Amino acid sequence: MKTFKLGGVHPAENKLSNNSPIQVLPIPKQVFIPVSQSLGAPSKPVVNKGDQVKVGQLIAKGEAFISSNIHSSVSGKVLKIDNITDQSDYPKQAIFINVEGDEWDENIDKSDKVKREITLSKEEIIRKIHEMGIVGLGGAAFPSHVKLMVPKGKKADLLIINGVECEPYLTSDYRLMLEKGEEILIGTTILMKGLGVNKAFIGIENNKPDAIKHLTNLAKDFEGIEVFSLKVKYPQGGEKQLIKALTNREVPSGKLPIEVGCVVNNVGTAFAVYEAVQKNKPLFERVVTVTGKTIENPSNFLVRIGTPSSELVEKAGGLPDDTGKIISGGPMMGKALNMIDVPIVKGSSGVLLIEDSETERIAVKNCIRCANCISVCPMGLEPVLLAQYSEKEMFENAEKEHILDCMECGSCQYTCPSGRPLLDYIRLGKFKVGEIIRNRGKK
């Protein structure tokens, strides 16, 4: 069974919303759409207070090379442009829109008919993906058009589509593969054409046998696309781990997948690319899992960007009394929210409600030198050492020990019997080392 070799853990899966089909969440009365929704520079608003907007209309333009366009997810009037608290708990600029009806931009194809014929050229595909504001929907939200622009001197020979969804609890990708499989494969073909490759691998963990079977059957009608079953192991959805599992290629330290001829995209991204290129539909909605052990109806919703997370929780049965923590994403790599009204953005994959009894960390004890954190690190790092360097502000040492290679998967902290806050310190160290490197470049 294919998998990555180095490290990894197997948390309880808790895929409670597996059997919940995707439901369309009702449109809220007001949305708050942040202008920074991708890895890169914030977009610049192109609307003003009082403007009338339609669904799919450009409201903020990504002017930097690494940035993404933002489109309205609703029709109505722009109330104001002001700061909100986003998932990072920092104030970020957002466009507030009061909803009035549901009028879509007339250029969007709203029909349910699947469109298989791809008429755009390679260059037109990249331009369309840029124009429609498509970003990676696996979590990092990297602008998708940039991934297709292979740097000079590099060559891609393989597209990898990530259908792993190894985070416990989350099922949005799983439901998308079951319900929109053909569209995902058309989107994969579009990405292959945009990248200039004739081969694509789709990797899915074997705890999703029906998704594997479904896409395998569909892939028979698509040239160059193969579906692979992978052993269940976290964090198999990491780019470097997925590349290793499927191809046995190793991405060097500090390098990107293109270094070994690969480009990786999420299944949700492939679906968004299909809608952008074939339906002229910008990325203004996405599938989000709302789940937890005590929530009444764990669900998967198709949600308009900018919708307050509280609307999803309410539709899934309301906030349980025993809720101790609300997490955006999954329990391993997600971010705890300080407030339930944080808006859904392009990178939102889930809203997870953790019961109070599971939120308390065990008492921190001295490191017992068991080396569990080292054995489970999928990047081959020494988490205990990196945490110590960060705690003692020895950031140059942390840089030499490749702290920036850490993918923040949380495997080290998950497995530590002494309850050491390893990942907390490593995140601090990564931030400081990044700051040092940027300042070094200015001299």
Strand and helix map with partners:
Elements: E1 22-24, E2 30-34, E3 44-45, E4 52-53, E5 58-61, E6 70-71, E7 76-85, E8 91-99, H1 122-131, H2 144-147, E9 158-162, H3 172-179, H4 181-195, E10 200-205, H5 209-219, E11 225-230, H6 239-247, E12 262-266, H7 267-279, E13 285-291, E14 299-304, H8 309-315, E15 323-328, E16 335-336, E17 350-355, H9 372-376, H10 383-391, H11 395-400, H12 411-415, H13 422-442
Parallel strand pairs: 1-14, 9-10, 9-12, 10-11, 13-17
Antiparallel strand pairs: 2-8, 3-5, 4-7, 5-6, 7-8, 13-14, 15-16, 15-17
Give your account of this protein's structure.
This protein starts with 21 loop residues before the first strand and ends with a helix. It has a six-stranded mixed β-sheet. α1 crosses α4 and α4 (181-195) packs across α7 (267-279). The chain is of the alpha/beta class and 443 residues long. The chain folds into four domains: 23-99, RNA polymerase II/Efflux pump adaptor protein, barrel-sandwich hybrid domain (OB fold (Dihydrolipoamide Acetyltransferase, E2P)), CATH 2.40.50.100; 129-279, Rossmann fold (3-Layer(aba) Sandwich); 285-358, Ubiquitin-like (UB roll); 372-442, no CATH class. It is globular and about 65 Å long. The protein contains 13 helices and 17 strands.
Summarize the structure.
With 443 residues, the protein is α/β, with parallel strands linked by helices. It has 13 helices and 17 strands.
Number of strands: 17
Compute the average pLDDT: 95
| Coarse morphology | globular
Text of the CATH class of the largest domain? Alpha Beta
* Assembly level: single chain
Spatial arrangement of strands, main beta sheet: 1-14-13-17-15-16
Major sheet attributes:
6 strands, mixed
The CATH superfamily of the largest domain appears as NADH-ubiquinone oxidoreductase 51kDa subunit
DSSP helical segment count? 13
Q: Whole-Å distance between the termini?
A: 50 Å
Radius of gyration: 21 Å
